[in-house]
Design goal:
Elements lengths: L11 H12 L3 E7 L2 E6 H17 L7 E5 L4 H13 L2 E5 L5 H11 L3 E4 L2 H5 L13 E4 L14 E4 H14 L3 H8 L5 E6 L9 E5 H14 L7 E4 L6 H13 L2 E4 L6 H8 L3 E4 L1 H17 L2 H19 L12 H11 L1 H6 L6 E4 L6 H10 L3 E5 L9 E2 L12 E2 L4 E4 L4 E5 L6 E2 L3 H7 L6 E9 L5 E6 L4 E2 L5 E2 L1 H9 L4 E7 L6 E7 L1 H10 L13 H15 L8 E6 L19 H7 L1 H11 L1
Parallel strand pairs: 1-11, 3-4, 3-5, 5-6, 6-7, 10-11, 12-13, 13-14, 25-26
Antiparallel strand pairs: 1-2, 8-9, 9-19, 14-15, 15-16, 17-18, 18-20, 20-21, 22-23, 24-25
Helix pairs in contact: 1-2, 1-3, 2-3, 2-6, 8-9, 12-13, 12-15
């Protein structure tokens, strides 16, 4: 086992308290409310967390109770989480994008003492007859709304403001209770229960402790240093393990965190918050890359040639291992001017100050990372799972190997099992799956190695390359094993393709189910003078030919046994609501394959 440094605090509660007392009137959160950006200082955040905590205590909530939180990102999410942490209650995050059935599965399995829901509208979507809730004492609405229509719920309903008022009254009669509870929390106390995305089965509740995340914030900071002058823009769901880590890192490092209004407003929010650090899934970078490529196609010839020349020069530097932030050295005035014309607008789109961009949650296409590095935006790809308290590996700012997820965090060990599975060991491996002893025993062996379920390889320098989920590997009728995730990423590089799922288990070759970005398809058709019927888009010969050409280009880049021979263009996207995607937008392969079973069978019947 690798030796690890002592923890920076006895608990995250103590860490939050210490940092709030240190930074006091400095801004901790920036958030959008009533048409403008507002600020919440460290003192104000601590005061609100204190009131919420004491209000919940007055309602009978005690240490170890579970508090389910179903809401989109907003400043109240962060403050409620700190309130729970400081009293020893366990936050159980639920994605706002979850279907009602998915949300009720988590609520029923976690059996919380408190359910916090964003709005009356969201609360009304939940069918409480689907779950036996023995512990539920109160339902809290973040938004203050009329609750007169909520008469048949299994617990009383209070607004968040009413809970805060209860806390203020309780504090007058029980001075010092909050501080006593905060000081009593120890490193090995349970912190949170985060449910896995459920790509290969039913989501499992991952129980982690204060010690797990105290180790995590220290290890991430050692690998990717930052300062209390950094500014983050928070747009990942806080229910996502990586979003939650960002939330904790902001307090550990003293960042200011801007909370994006929504995914749709990110472009404007970047310009308003001007972050220096962001945590993101690859889709954000891939979408930006696609938009840049589309704009470039429509640009004037002289501007396109300047961009292409500057990009070629930068790519040489990236290939040679030069740091992209040293982009203007030794290349003369021409490259400085080209940089301002070509890449300054790219950096400005991210606020103009972006210093570090963390990517995790899914593979990042190497060409996308390489492009942004050339443009002067450092994307550090990392890897981890909910069970590893978010991260186990990450590239370093001064030690990047594109196409890999980097080196292990300090204090983390990694090895590859005989069947190619990635195994991880360290102080951040989760405590248990809630109410699932057998699954816990299967996931962590007697030597402490967590079996990730991912397939990968470690090079001689220790960099990890992840190829696919072990359960997702496609085994052809000829015995060849294919990682579908890589092929799907290649397909989605083309702006015409929205989603892709590669199939072919037990078959002689691979096929693909593809959905389209309809607006971009129609736009490209107009550019080429082709008139398409939007109602019959997927069956149009021109569309079929475009997809066929995309697949042919990809097939030239892969081994013969990885080539996609057949495809079907679907008339609608896979969705979270139809339970074809997880809340983190990963495909639920078993559900998709079963739902499109007849279509897949027809693809192979026609090919035979």
């Amino acid at each position: 086992m690798i030796a690890t440094p002592p923890l920076c605090a006895p608990s995250l509660a103590a860490l939050f308290w210490t940092q709030a007392k240190r930074y006091q009137d400095r801004v901790l959160y920036r958030y959008w409310r009533e048409g403008q950006w507002r600020s919440l200082s460290w003192n104000e955040a601590l005061c609100q967390a204190r009131e919420i905590a004491l209000g919940l205590i007055s309602l009978g909530i005690s240490r170890g109770d579970r508090i389910a939180l179903l809401s989109a990102n907003r400043v109240e999410w962060q403050v409620i989480d700190w309130a729970n942490i400081c009293t020893g209650a366990l936050t159980v995050p639920i994605y706002a994008s979850s279907s009602a059935a998915q949300a009720m599965h988590i609520i029923g399995h976690a059996d919380p003492a408190v359910l916090v829901v964003e709005s009356v509208v969201r609360l009304k979507t939940l069918d409480f007859s689907r779950a036996l809730l023995n512990q539920l004492k109160v339902i809290v609405l973040i938004d203050s709304q009329d609750t007169s229509s909520l008469q048949t719920l299994p617990a009383k309903v209070l607004s968040l403001e009413a809970v805060r008022e209860l806390g203020r009254v309780y504090d007058q009669r029980h001075s010092g209770v909050f501080e006593m509870l905060k000081d009593s929390i120890r490193p090995d106390d349970d912190l949170t229960i985060v449910y896995t995305s459920g790509t290969t089965g039913v989501p499992k509740g991952v129980v982690t402790t204060h010690a797990h995340y105290l180790f995590m914030v220290q290890a991430v900071d050692a690998a990717v240093p930052s300062t209390d002058r950094d500014v983050a823009l928070h747009f990942l769901p806080t229910a996502h393990a990586l979003g939650r880590l960002e939330h904790f890192m902001a307090v550990y490092k003293g960042w200011t965190m801007g909370i994006a209004r929504s995914v749709e407003t990110i472009a404007n929010d970047f310009r308003s918050i001007r972050p220096t650090v962001i945590f993101s899934v690859p889709r954000i970078y891939e979408n930006a890359y696609t938009r840049i490529r589309l704009r470039l196609r429509r640009a004037r010839v002289w501007r396109r040639k300047i961009f292409e020349w500057a990009l070629a020069q930068r790519m040489e530097q990236v290939d040679a291992g030069s740091h992209p932030l040293g982009r203007s050295r030794g290349r003369g005035l021409a490259l400085v001017i080209a940089d301002r014309l070509a890449f300054a607008p790219v950096r400005a789109a991210f606020g103009g100050r972006l210093r570090l961009a963390i990517a995790g949650g899914a593979p990042l296409a190497p060409e996308v990372a390489k492009f942004f590095h050339a443009a002067g935006i450092v994307i550090l790809e990392g890897y981890g799972l909910t069970e590893t308290s978010t991260v186990s590996h990450v590239n370093r700012p001064d030690n990047i190997r594109l196409g890999t997820v980097g080196l292990p965090l300090p204090g983390t060990e990694c090895r590859i099992a005989g069947d190619g599975e990635i195994l991880v060991r360290g102080p951040h491996i989760f405590k248990a799956y809630l109410r699932d002893f057998m699954a816990t025993q299967e996931a962590v062996d007697v030597a402490g190695w967590f079996h990730t379920g991912d397939i990968g390889a470690v090079d001689r320098d220790g960099f990890l390359r992840v190829t696919d989920r072990k359960k997702d590997l496609i085994v052809s009728s000829g015995g060849k094993k294919v990682a579908p995730q890589r092929l799907e990423s290649l397909l989605k590089e083309d702006p015409l393709i929205s989603q892709a799922v590669v199939v072919g288990s037990g078959q002689p070759h691979l096929s693909a189910l593809i959905t389209l970005d309809r607006q971009r398809v129609l736009g490209r058709a107009r550019e080429q003078g082709v008139d398409l019927d939007p109602d019959y888009l997927t069956s149009e010969p021109w569309v079929q030919n475009q997809v066929r050409q995309i697949i042919q280009r990809i097939n030239r880049r892969v081994a013969a046994f990885e080539a996609i021979r057949n495809f079907s263009v679907l008339d609608k996207d896979f969705t979270v609501e139809n339970e074809e995607l997880t809340p983190t937008l990963k495909p639920r392969r078993s559900i998709i394959v079963e739902r499109y079973k007849k279509l897949i069978e027809d693809l192979y019947r026609k090919a035979s």
